[in-house]
Amino acid sequence: MQRQAKSKVPVLLYQYEGPERNIGFTLSPLYLNEEMHEIRQEDMLFIYDEDFKHIRPAIHRVFPLTDPQSGEELQAFDPCWDNPLVKEVWPGILAELDQVEVVEPELRVFLDSLTTWIRNVLASADGIEVTGNL
């Protein structure tokens, strides 16, 4: 009997070269009606903190927000917990990431890979949840 490979969360890398398991952020599709959607690990994306610093300013600017599930006001991005970002806030984040001026072509490839992933997820999800593991 052949063992089925364990699924893993894909990792998007730019400069990070440390150990495989380290501080970072998992981006996953956000569905407001969770019963209707199964989120698999391969549907998520992990970005190490060292690389996330290129994305963080654009995300920080959308706060404060209202949590779409609890109605609680989220004053600031929380690097230790869930940050549910509904579809409506992503156009501003994407526009900012698309306009980042880069010196290194590798950073543009990294940002373009991320924005492509985000746009693909938002085609069917209600948003994207950014969860820190700090």
> For the largest beta sheet, what order do the strands appear in spatially?
2-1-6-5
Quaternary structure annotation:
single chain
Helix content: 25-40%
Strand content: 15-25%
Average pLDDT value?
91
Question: Total strand count, please?
Answer: 6
Q: Mind telling me the C-alpha Rg? A: 15 Å
The largest sheet is: 4 strands, antiparallel
The helix-strand sequence is EEHHEEEHHE
Q: Total number of helical segments?
A: 4
N-end to C-end Cα span: 39 Å
How would you explain this protein's 3D organization?
The termini are far apart. The chain contains four helices and six strands; from the N terminus they run ββααβββααβ. It has 134 residues and is of the alpha+beta class.
Task: Give a short synopsis of this structure.
The chain contains four helices and six strands; from the N terminus they run E-E-H-H-E-E-E-H-H-E. With 134 residues, it is an alpha+beta fold. The mean pLDDT is 91.
Write the layout of secondary structure elements.
Elements: E1 24-30, E2 45-48, H1 49-52, H2 56-60, E3 65-66, E4 73-74, E5 82-86, H3 90-99, H4 105-122, E6 127-132
Antiparallel strand pairs: 1-2, 1-6, 3-4, 5-6
Helix pairs in contact: 3-4
Keywords for this entry:
28% helix, two-stranded antiparallel sheet, 4 helices
